[in-house]
Amino acid sequence: MFQGETAVTLDDKGRVAIPAAQRELVAKVSGNRLVVTYNPFEPGCLWIFPEKEWERVRDEVNALSKVKKVHRDMQMKLVGAAAHVEPDGNGRIQLPGSQRAATGIEKRAVLLGMDNKLELWGEQAHLAKIRETIGEDQITEDMADLKL
């Protein structure tokens, strides 16, 4: 579904334009209805889901037991913080100020297509992450079977 990396700029109102190359796909798979929420695993990153995919993720996360703190934390970061957005006529979506502040996403960012969702990274967080290498001790059995 989604793939590719694009440098993007947020405007003074906290809006980011979906790249032209992705707009048609966004319209097709989501009817221009998206959900923005935190990436619970990586600082400096927001996830942007097509609404239908979001509903699947939301239901899975909400089905987790509320007894475990880690489950409640994931529910808070994903479901509690979720914001529905729709691209305007120029393909821009409004990012919630609280999410921008919490992730440190400011003027310059990077939008990544990651199969079922888009990831929006603050520029510095993206640089730090992309510069990390995967060490041999981190390679899983599934990764070892890849034919790269």
Overall description:
It comes from Dokdonella soli. The structure is a single chain. The protein is α+β, with helices and mostly antiparallel strands and 148 residues long. It has one domain (2-144): Transcriptional regulator MraZ domain (Chemotaxis protein chec), CATH 3.40.1550.20. It is 37% helix and 28% strand. The chain has six helices and eight strands; from the N terminus they run ββαββααββαββαα. It has helices at 20-30, 51-62, 69-80, 97-103, 123-131, 141-144; strands spanning 2-9, 15-17, 34-38, 45-50, 83-85, 92-94, 108-115, 117-122. A six-stranded antiparallel β-sheet has the order 1-7-8-4-3-5. The protein has a two-stranded antiparallel sheet with strand order 2-6. Strand 7 (108-115) and strand 8 form a beta hairpin.
Write the layout of secondary structure elements.
Elements: E1 2-9, E2 15-17, H1 20-30, E3 34-38, E4 45-50, H2 51-62, H3 69-80, E5 83-85, E6 92-94, H4 97-103, E7 108-115, E8 117-122, H5 123-131, H6 141-144
Antiparallel strand pairs: 1-7, 2-6, 3-4, 3-5, 4-8, 7-8
InterPro entries: MraZ, MraZ_C, MraZ_dom, MraZ_N, MraZ_sf, SpoVT-AbrB_dom, SpoVT-AbrB_sf
Subcellular location: Cytoplasm, Nucleoid
Family: Belongs to the MraZ family.
Structural key phrases:
Chemotaxis protein chec; single chain; 148 residues; globular; six-stranded antiparallel β-sheet; 6 helices; two-stranded antiparallel sheet; alpha+beta
